[in-house]
Write a structure and sequence with these properties.
2 domains; five-stranded mixed sheet; D-Maltodextrin-Binding Protein, domain 2; eight-stranded mixed sheet; alpha+beta; 9 helices; 35% helix; Fructose-1,6-Bisphosphatase, Chain A, domain 1
């Protein structure tokens, strides 16, 4: 394994520190358990005060550190352009966060043109931090991770994300296909952490029919470095809008892709 580019390695370390502070800000603002304390952007698509505060915090810190880098946020859109571009989801899993639950994270990915090169996912309520740098491994709390070795679909655990943008028959068709394989279905409400779970072997696959770049930018380097297989999300429209993603461990990927009719790269 070659030494990482000093510029990219420095950016990853800086991003980890900034996301750590942003995650602590989010923890300090987290609602107590109970009904959702948030506004609705659309059906079951929540927005909290924290989303804006965390995104603004990260945007300001990254601009100060790397003024020539681009920046794109879920809430603010693209605010700066550059060949290197940071992509942030300030709170991924907002529906969980808004109810005082633990399954949510702050997610910050780095794109080099159209290529994902680094990512940090910090889930402070779980005490977990994922990091990855292209060509130099994927890590959970500093320890290397890799995708699961499960090859038998009847022993597999597959998560599928839900979105109001997806017609019910389409969602149910994919879910039926998962269960026909004999796999155990799951839905946890946080796409970035579900993809990180595939990278770490906690899940054998994750599917979401419509998901955005800010949800997956930090997870894509994790998946690549951990040996998972991924559908061509970026090629299929993920750079500019919502697109489908399938990520799976390499031993079950072809069976799952065929069952749910989502091609892999």
């Amino acid at each position: 394994m070659t030494s990482p580019s000093p510029a990219l390695a420095y950016r990853l370390e800086a991003a980890r520190a900034v996301v750590h502070d942003a995650a602590r800000l989010a923890m300090s603002m987290r609602p107590p358990p109970g009904g959702p304390q948030a506004a609705l952007k659309s059906a079951q698509d929540w927005l909290t005060e924290t989303d804006g505060a965390v995104e603004a915090f990260i945007a300001q810190r990254m601009q100060a550190l790397f003024p020539d880098d681009g920046f794109m946020g879920e809430e603010g859109g693209t605010t700066r352009s550059g060949s290197l571009r940071w992509v942030v989801d300030p709170i991924d899993g907002t529906s969980n966060y808004a109810r005082g639950r633990c399954r949510w994270c702050v997610s910050l990915g780095l794109m080099d043109g159209d290529e994902p090169v680094a990512g940090v996912i910090d889930a402070p309520a779980l005490g977990e931090v994922y990091t990855a740098l292209r060509g130099h491994g994927a890590f959970l709390n500093g320890r290397p991770i890799q995708a699961s070795s499960v090859a038998d679909p009847t022993r597999a655990m597959i998560e599928m994300g839900w979105s109001g943008r997806v017609p019910k028959p389409v969602f149910m068709d994919k879910m039926d296909a998962i269960m026909e394989l004999g796999a155990m279905p799951r839905s946890g409400g946080c796409g970035a952490l579900a993809l990180a779970d595939v990278a770490s072997g906690r899940l054998d696959g994750y599917i979401e029919i419509v998901i955005n770049l800010w949800d997956v930018a930090a997870a894509l380097p994790l998946l690549m470095e951990a040996g998972a297989r991924v559908s061509p999300f970026l090629r299929d429209g993920g750079l500019t809008g919502g697109a489908t993603i399938l990520a799976a461990n390499p031993h079950i990927a072809d069976q799952l892709a065929q069952a749910v009719a989502i091609p892999l790269e």
